Amino acid sequence: MVPRIRPIHGPALPPVAGLALVTGASSGIGAATAAALAGAGFEVLGTSRRGAAAPAPRGVRMIELDLADPGSIAAAAETVRERARGRGERGAAVLVANAGESQSGPLEELPRAAWERLLQVNVVGQLDLVARLLPGMRAAGRGRVVLVGSMLGSLPLAFRSSYVASKAALRGAGLALRGEVAPFGIGVSVVEPGSVATGIAARRTRYGGAWDSPYRGRLAAMLDRLDANEAAGVAPEAVAEAILAEIRARRPAAYRARGSRAALAIPLTRLGGTQFTLDLMDRVHGLR
User: Fold this and answer.
1) H-helix or E-strand spanning residue 47
2) Which of 163, 207, 215, 255 is catalytic?
3) Domain spans, the chain
4) What is the block-wise mean pLDDT of the chain (288 residues), using blocks of 10 residues?
5) C-alpha angle with apex 60: 57 to 63, nearest 5 degrees?
6) Does residue 207 have an active-site annotation?
7) What is the distance between the alpha carbons of residues 120 and 116, in angstroms, rounded to a whole number?
8) Which CATH number does the domain 19-284 belong to among 1.10.287.40, 3.40.50.10540, 3.40.50.720, 3.90.930.60?
């Protein structure tokens, strides 16, 4: 019999209100989260590489941010600080680090430049932005940081090595950061979506699988199943709801998964062990 373990959510933290920043807010989970925060009474800045030209959810002001460009990250952080000062506040109350890119391909056929870009955008750039906004949260004595990862960061899938690595790194950094900033009234949560119907399949960068690739058949099978799973996934609003719950919580959870039957999949794979998890992911994605 498996013992029931009561979840520990950490210390009680001050509630937050005021200015929120959501990266990657022009579509998908980011747009749904930005809209939810605006509806909850936050002033919301959303980011896109296209800046003000990008589609904006209702009540959201879009600003430019390219996570591949350190100068753009610094400029976006300064824009947030300026807006906070205009409100008479120390800084943003909330940061939802959602923006990112998706890749697929056999590790053997992934160019070094692909790895470098993905890790910069999905990990280094996001954490650079977090670091730049933390001083304002510390000075205010309250804040919430939500890092949006992927369930693939916990449940690795063949031919997604670069993406899996980036999301696992983001999760690890976020959970470590949680212990650093809790004494300052700042809560850090990692939210990992499973399959979400955001249309990301059409934007995923695909490498390898040429006609003479030894991986061609299995790669194609995985991508077909992956695309189908994402098309049938939960709505972005379901993930936004989970993110908003952690922002509102006095004791935000360290980790939360949403979608892909997370309530069953995560405990099952933890009980089954590593090879069980890898075999299960292969079967679910047409590789067994």
Assistant:
1) strand 43-48
2) 163
3) 19-284
4) 53 94 96 97 97 92 97 98 96 97 95 97 98 98 97 94 97 97 97 84 82 94 91 91 96 89 78 89 88
5) 105
6) no
7) 6
8) 3.40.50.720
